[in-house]
Amino acid sequence: MVLAILGQRLEVKLRAAETGGALGATEAVIEPGWEGPPAHIHHREDEAVYVLEGELEFTVAGTLHPAPAGTLVHIPRGARHAWRNVSDRQSRSLTIYTPGGFEAVFDRVDAGTPIAALAADYGLELPAA
User: Fold this and answer.
1) What is the predicted pLDDT for the residue at 5?
2) pTM higher than 0.85, yes or no?
């Protein structure tokens, strides 16, 4: 099932329940020029993002990482990060969360729960409003 999350289309490819909690994975389709989510921090999981198509740009712990197709970006837990699509076309990425479980937040956001209301439940730190 494809979910609409924060301006991108997201599909959960692998859930923690399928891996004994070891990991979860999502695939995102990101529209050209999308400015991405606000900078945020995951306190419970690391992320590895593989850019499948297009070109993204990540800021991780204050360091800018250009990420054309074929790039793998590691985002360690506790690192403030954000990304955006700098391509003039759709970009696609595969994100792996370790341990798994964070992918469940996307189902709840797609169902209408504001992400800010879920932050504490998922160890997510969002910027001050």
Assistant:
1) 77
2) yes
